[in-house]
Write a structure and sequence with these properties.
Blueprint lengths: L1 E9 L4 H12 L4 E7 L4 E7 L5 H8 L5 E3 L2 H4 L6 H47 L8 H21 L2 H13 L4 H21 L1 H4 L10 H25 L1 H9 L3 E6 L2 E6 L8 E4 L8 E12 L1 H4 L5 E3 L4 E2 L4 E2 L3 E8 L5 H14 L5 H34 L1 H18 L3 H20 L2 E3 L2 H7 L4 E5 H5 L5 E7 L5 H12 L5 H12 L8 E6 L3 E6 L2 E6 L1 H6 L7 H7 L4 E7 L2 E9 L4 H12 L3 E5 L4 H11 L3 E3 L4 H13 L4 E5 L5 H6 L2 E6 L11 E4 L5 H35 L3 H4 L5 H24 L3
Helix pairs in contact: 1-13, 4-5, 4-9, 5-9, 6-7, 7-9, 7-14, 9-28, 10-12, 12-15, 13-14, 13-15, 14-26, 14-28, 15-26, 15-28, 16-26, 18-19, 26-28
The structure holds adenosine-5'-diphosphate (ADP) and magnesium ion.
Magnesium ion binds next to helix 17.
């Protein structure tokens, strides 16, 4: 049996690291699959626990400089519980901060030295053009002897990862970004060392004037600075999770033996009676048993207005009570709460890979060896063609400049960060607005969809119908009809059923228990009371019974949007109850906005045709499929897809589940605690359909961000590599100094991460 787990991986610096890890782990026997995300620094591994273990996998990775963080719970053979996972996340955050602090110290120690080197470089250049008086020989000599010491110092303090990269390259044949930089700077350093140490001996062949100590110093410092800035801003991309974690209360006030006692949140169990005082956080999910208040649910649903809570209202963990006091019964605790679900889902979505990343991944995988080859070719080229033109010392210096420049500027870093950082920010932004995204692929597809299919009940209408009229057709009176209906409906969960039961209770009509109860999907239900079998539902039920009924008499009501609920036994119709489900005010606005985004809106419903059309017209829906059975909803989606449409399906997630799964993007209207989060690609918390428009915009924004990132990352390498290689030298005399290469490389990943962070501030 294969299991899939996600582990933190330490020691990753770049996209090529991700592909290195993937390649290595895939080769291990017992591992079925691995997917590494450089954005979250997580690896999702599917493996056979009988053959291999995270520990064994780790043993393969350690020599390459990576380590798999195995949570303690899992090391003992049990699966991780959501909370253990969260603790892990917090720990890794503080570890990250410590790591960044170390980086900072190194970089700030190196910066003054790099500053001096740059100063000398500039002086030399200006001096050559007589812009400043050339450096006096004594000063020059002084620095000349100091630079090797500086360069050595830099290598020892912040250059270690690059030297290790070179070591791993020769020892294991696995190269990453660090190997390239290490190789480039080390070659530059060794060359410089040779020419300055054997200055006199080599004088006829090589000139000590062309040394690269400054290059070594500045390149390593810039790259370390870039990495430090990148790590710092990357930390910011993931703060949505941290904010969500912060919503969790630490303790709960539980009533036990009539006394209020404060207990740790972990100790709360199902069924506990919990008090919530003004201003307090709701600790777990539950149902209000007494009291009254308004609760601020904005952190979960994105709705700014506090929600009224009286008896039987659902409350969810992480929301904040305003001024009232109430007691509630815990119905979901620990990893089962909505908040825990959300955190888990956001974590998983942020760690998932968007299909658009595939190309960048493929390139990163072959990037390092390709660049190495290009650098060597370029070196050979300069030596061969440069020799007759410049002479040996200068040709060698050119060849080395291009070699080091190429190794330094070529960086799959920006390429690797382009997609995941934007996804992390996009998913996090969604969560803040009450839009839960299941994975990166969903976010990628959503804005491309051209057809939005909506379910009627609960999506366009409130899903809270009320009875508007009761029509008696047989020998039973109105009271009796409601009594029978409510008895049967008391077993159903359909919104219509709830309306009828509520109506009966309000009118003090007795509700008993039916026998032989059965739901007839898409039509209604049947059951026996006092030995008589009854049928409840729409016209399909009546025609199934072969009862004749003049449907025209219904039209007056249905054309005004009322849904008929027919009650019959085998002999004939007994009565009809009409129910009306109010349209959600935001539905009309949403359809308008979707039209503006050039999306066609289609409504699907099991309800009566006239009723559906009435509602569709008010809301502005383009096309209606009414009286459809649940299994046909799926087929309608399939048909739409077969015609080349990209289809979004919005439903309440219960009987729409197959259609939600079939659609290119399934959107569930998660209303409070009873969300079926898993069933759809996107869940709109709070059941607010207008969030669909925001979700589409978010999708577009994120994808635009990714495309910009990818564009710049590609362009940067496409121009940078030939520039560093000296391809433009014969034409314009341009040869990129490795110093600029280092600088460019440092800003490239920082700019990609910053561009992703920009999404955070954009308006939805
Ligand atoms: P929808 O979610 O669009 O209402 P359903 O498949 O749940 O679709 O129901 C289709 C139709 O069947 C409803 O519009 C209603 O007319 C009838 N129906 C289903 N369940 C019940 C019920 N419990 N009581 C009365 N009518 C029902
Ligand atoms: Mg429905």
């Amino acid at each position: 049996m294969n299991t899939t787990h996600t582990y933190q991986v330490k020691g990753m610096h770049c996209a090529s690291c991700a592909s290195n890890i993937e390649r290595t782990v895939k080769k291990i026997i017992g591992v079925e699959n691995i997917s590494v995300n450089i954005g979250t620094e997580n690896a999702k591994i599917t493996f056979d626990a009988k053959i291999t273990s995270p520990k064994m996998i780790n043993q393969h990775l350690e020599p390459l400089g990576y380590s798999l963080m195995v949570p303690k719970t899992e090391a003992m053979g049990t699966t991780t519980i959501a909370h253990a996972g969260h603790l892990e996340l917090n720990q890794s955050k503080s570890e990250k901060l410590a790591e960044i602090a170390v980086m900072k110290k190194g970089v700030f120690g190196a910066l003054p030295i790099a500053g001096i080197s740059i100063f000398i470089m500039i002086w030399e250049i200006f001096g050559r053009y007589q812009l400043v008086t050339p450096m006096s020989l004594t000063i020059y000599e002084f620095f000349h002897h100091l630079l090797p010491i500086f360069a050595t110092y830099i290598f020892i303090t912040i250059g270690k990862p690059y030297l290790l990269g070179v070591y791993r390259f020769f020892r294991y044949g696995s190269a990453n970004m660090d190997s390239l930089i290490g190789l480039g700077t080390l070659v530059a350093f060794i060359y410089s060392f040779i020419v300055s140490a054997f200055e006199e001996v080599l004088a006829p062949y090589l000139s000590a004037q062309y040394n690269f100590y400054d290059v070594t110093i500045v390149v390593i410092t810039f790259i370390a600075l870039g990495k430090y800035l990148e790590a710092k801003s990357k930390l910011k991309t993931g703060d949505a999770i941290e904010k969500l974690l912060g919503l969790q209360a630490k303790t709960a006030l539980v009533i036990s033996d009539g006394k209020e006692i404060e207990i740790k949140i972990e100790a709360v169990i199902l069924g506990d009676l919990i008090v919530v005082k003004p201003g307090q956080k709701i600790p777990v999910d539950g149902v209000v048993v007494d009291g009254f208040s308004y609760v601020d649910e904005s952190m979960i649903t994105g709705e700014p207005v506090p929600v009224e809570k009286t008896i039987n209202a659902q409350v969810v963990a992480g929301t904040i009570n305003t001024t009232g006091t109430f007691n509630f019964r815990a119905t979901k605790v620990g990893s089962k709460t909505l908040l825990s679900h959300i955190i888990k889902m956001v974590e998983e979505a942020q760690g998932s890979k968007a299909p658009i990343q595939a190309l960048a991944d493929k390139i990163s995988a072959v990037f390092v060896p390709t660049v190495l080859v290009i650098a060597i070719i370029s070196f050979g080229f300069w030596m061969y063609f440069g020799l007759p033109v410049f002479g040996f010392p200068k040709a060698l210096s050119f060849a080395l400049t291009s070699f080091v420049g190429i190794l330094v500027i070529a960086c799959p870093c920006a390429l690797g960060l382009a997609t995941p950082t934007a996804i992390i920010v996009g998913v996090g932004k969604g969560a803040k607005e009450g839009i839960l995204v299941k994975d990166a692929a969903t976010l990628e597809t959503l804005h491309k969809a051209n057809v939005v299919v909506v379910d009627k009940t609960g999506t366009i209408t409130k899903g809270k119908p009320t009875i508007t009229k009761v029509q008696v057709l047989g020998d039973k009176n109105e009271q009796e009809i409601i009594g029978i209906l409510a008895t049967l409906e008391s077993k159903s969960e359909h919104p219509i059923a709830q309306a009828i039961v509520k109506h009966a209770k309000e009118n003090n009509i007795a509700v008993t228990t039916p026998s032989n109860f059965e739901i007839i999907k898409g039509k209604g239900l049947r059951g026996t009371i006092d030995g008589v079998e009854y049928f409840v539902g729409n016209l399909k039920i009546i025609s199934d019974l072969n009862l004749s009924y003049n449907t025209h008499s219904l039209e007056q009501e249905t054309k005004q949007g009322k849904t008929p609920v027919l009650l019959a036994n085998k002999n004939g119709l007994l009565g009809i109850v009409f129910v009306a489900d109010p349209i959600k005010p935001e539905a009309i606005e949403t359809v308008k906005a979707l039209h503006k985004l050039k999306k066609k809106v289609v409504m699907l419903t099991g309800d009566n045709k006239n009723t559906a059309q009435y509602i569709a017209k008010i809301v502005g829906i383009d096309q209606v499929f009414a009286e459809v059975l649940p299994e046909d909803k799926l087929n309608i989606i399939k048909d739409l897809q077969a015609k080349g449409n990209i289809v979004v399906m919005v439903g309440d997630g219960i009987n729409d589940a197959p259609a939600l799964a079939q659609a290119d993007v399934g959107v569930a209207m998660g209303t409070g605690a009873d969300v079926a989060i898993e069933s759809a690609g996107i869940t709109l918390l709070g059941g607010d359909i207008s969030k669909l428009v925001k979700a589409v915009k978010l999708s577009k924004m994120t994808m635009n961000g990714i495309k910009q990132n990818l564009f710049w990352a590609f362009i940067y390498n496409i121009i940078g590599i030939p520039l560093a290689g000296g391809a433009f030298y014969p034409l314009f005399g341009w040869l990129l100094s490795p110093v600029f290469a280092g600088f460019a490389m440092a800003i490239s990943s920082v700019s990609v991460v910053s561009n992703s962070l920009r999404i955070k501030a954009m308006k939805l």
